[in-house]
Queue: 2 jobs
Job 1
Amino acid sequence: MGRNGAGKTTLLNCLIDLVEPDSGQFLLNGETLTGERQPLKDVLGILSDAVPPVPEFTGYDYLKFVSLIYRIDDATFKKRTKELISFFFDEEKILNKRISQYSTGMTKKICLCATILHTPDLLILDEPFAGLDPVAAQQLIAFLEAYRNSNRIILIASHDLSYLQKIANRILVLDDTQIKYDGSLDGFTSQGTKVIDEALFELLAPKTKEISFDWI
């Protein structure tokens, strides 16, 4: 979590090899990631505006394209696609429409399906709730709760704090590219005595500005 410009998306883009970091290193299972970071990319699922879908593709074409990248066999692709579309969408015929015709929320959901099609062990979601209606957001939370296990990591960057409070068990707060908090959700909210946005506000403690506009 963090304010706009704190470095959340930049950090994620460095991790997935879209941006070259100025310094430092990334480690996966104790091993430094270098070069093309293929060991990471093999187990990575990324939802980010920096990795947009192909608008000329239909939903089916896009999911099939992703399945070919990850070498998913046809039977597995069909099974997972049917289950994901049935879960996140009301009608399967949405697969036949071009993504350019999708609404913002529909595009986010087809991207979610593509992100998890190959069952990644490391799932990175940058603002996954943005553009989703409340029903779809709750569906995503339910899916993530079912998806996570002791062998998987789900890393979420989001401003939708109420949704984060429902799913997160560890909190990392960035401010001006520096880590301000790294610990449990219970610790961050003082064992639940504070809501998550109140705890974040107190941590970052912005200066209170008086409203002095003479036209309101």
Note: The domain at 8-204 is CATH 3.40.50.300 (Rossmann fold).
Job 2
Amino acid sequence: MTRLAILSLILAPALFAAGPGSMPSTGGMHRSPHEDAVGYYNAAERRLDKMSKLHAELKATTDPQKAATLRQNLNKGLEAAAADFRRATDNDPRMFQAHSELGFTLRKLGRYDESLAAYEKALEIEPGFSPAIEYRAEAYLGLGKLDEVKSAYMLLFDGDRPKADTLMTSMNSWVAQQRTTPTVDAAQLDAFGKWLEARQTLAGQVPAVASADTFRSW
């Protein structure tokens, strides 16, 4: 799980003492709104760490009853994380990382329009923030906005190749799913599939530069 770089995380060690999903205690010390935002952000990130494990269990299970329970628990955790990310942005509206992570969380809940609004806010504050660009493209995929997906891929290919490769994987998965349960026009899907094949061929001819950054894979 990525911990996005927020410099003020080092300001108050007490911010890290709280359990998952709770605001940290500062022993009676006065907190600034930004420090409160950091606390909510960290609480939400801890929730997402737990939800990633539930997501892996959900993908692995073949038991319908267990899957239903896991899905219910996953959605509850995502809703709680979204609430904490909103609290973070309420306390510090300029925390673009929290806006981006809110977008991720809402997308995982299938709330694509709200997700896009959160990504747009993150990119309004920090236009070159590549995680939000990639995550937003996945929301576009969910809505079938393929021209926007292609534009995002081209932007990432030139500016953050590892994120472009992540998006490529998501595009391939989306196309495979669309072949069995289509939600877009067949001609549109075929055209996108051909574009994707051409981009994969080109990507194979242009080596990627290794990145020290980590990125949430679910």
Note: Residues 146-208 form one domain.
